[in-house]
Structure formats: structure tokens, C-alpha cells
Design goal:
CATH class: Alpha Beta
Distance between the termini: 10 Å
Order of helices and strands: EHEEHEHEEHEHEHEHHEHHEH
Number of strands: 11
Shape: globular
CATH superfamily: Divalent-metal-dependent TIM barrel enzymes
CATH topology: TIM Barrel
Helix content: 40-55%
Number of domains: 1
Low-confidence stretches: none
Mean pLDDT: 95
Number of helices: 11
Amino acid sequence: MNTGINMEFIRCEDKPFTEGVARAAAIGYRFIEPMVHNGRELLSEAGYFHSVSMDEDPLEIRDILEANRVRASGLSAHCPLMRPEISVPYLQKAIRFAHAIGAPVVNTDEGIRPPWVPLEEAFGVMKYTLVTVLRTAERYGIFVGIEPHQSISKTTEGLLRIATLVDSPFLRVNYDTGNAYLGGEDPYAGLAAAARLVVHVHAKDISIRMSESEKGKVTGTPVGCACGDGVIDWGRVIRILRDAGYSGVLSVECGTPDQAVRSRAHLEALLAAQPEPRHAHSH
């Protein structure tokens, strides 16, 4: 198992992607998780935001990673699965981009349910989207990781229902400990229930203050606090993952470079204290 960093950690400093990659590498991370978007976006164009346009040449992005000796653990590509006119071409493009930069998984969630899509119809629409997208994913050998993040996937039952809508080995789970906790779930029970499908992990901790004010009221949060500073027991998380044979990346989602430093130190110490089991498999 390895530690990685979601590029959101650099957003507080209004820095571009290239600067974020260099900073992550300087901290000691060897895996990063870029965020992508469609078209042109003013803040990214001006160098104030870390998100990468999928209109950029992906091989140029791969060159940036290689120059900093880091790899992409996954691609953050969230979109509304219940709006196939948006999510099908977007995720297909993200899959091709991920393949080109060497990211094994595209991470997404169901998105906000549009008011014109009744709940009983939502699963049929999402299944159509996923069937279409997974044809591309299977061709390129890229996983699609569903994250607990919105009204349906905030529960373990809802997450697993979405992640099993299509019978494909490439439809998996990107488990986010912080979002599950804030949504009102037991993150350890949820992780254990989803472990056989987990292909990527968002290592998100939740501060005591956020826990007291937000738990059960929201379905997630963009970033958490430093791992080890909040409510999540990372030793327990690592044990659950190792027992399930997971040896992929713990992609830290925190809000500042200082939190990124402390998160890595905390997680690396716990990983070093727990030896890898012989049956662990990598994704």
C-alpha cells in the first residue's frame, strides 16, 4: 500500500497543476491524483487553479509527472451519472486521458440527482450511462471507481447498488472515508462491506469541529483535515484494507500543503508498523 495526494491540497494557494505536482513530489509523495475538466476554464488558464483540461495533450501531462518522478494513482473526474448527455462523453474522454497518462482508475460519483429524474428511475438512467462508459473502460483497461459522495451513495447500500449496476470487473469503488462518515455511515463497516470492490481510496479525515457541525447533514466535503488530526482511525482503515488484500494507494484529500506533510507522516508510520500480508494484490 502506498500514500498519494489529491491535487486539492494546493488549491488554497491558487497554484497551477505543474506547481502542485512539484510540491507533492518535494513532500515525498510518489502518487498524485489530478482533477480534470472539459474545455477551457479561466482560473486554470491563468495559472491559479490545479485542474487540468482534457483538451490539453495528455502526453504533456505525463511528461510533467515523469519529470517529477510521480505517477497518477487515479483521475478525479466527477460528473452526474443521471445526465448521460453530459457524463457519457465526459467519462469516455476521461478514460482515454487516464490511459494516456498511466492512471489506472477514473474516480467519479453519481452527481446531484436532477429534479426531473424520479428516484425510482435514477438507477435505470445510471445503468445506461455506466453500460455505455464501461464499454470504453474495458477496451482501455481502466477502472471506474464510484465514490460515496451524494444522496444515494452516501449510504453503503446505495454505494454498492450503483457499483454493481453493471456486471463488469472494471466497475469498482473509490472509498472516501470522510464522505462516508459525514453522510452518517460507520466508515469502517462501510469500507469492510465494499472492500472486495475497492480499487482506490480517498484518505480523508474529518476534524472534530466539522464532525460536530456537519455529520448527518451533508453528503461529503471537498477536503478534510490532516490524516491523524480528525476522527478517522487510520490504523483500523489500513487493517481492513490489508485484510481484504488491497495494496493500492491511499490518496490523501486535505486542504493545505502543511496538512499534506502531516498526513503523509501519519499514514507512512502506520503502514510501516503493519507488515503487508502475502496475499495482497495491487490494482
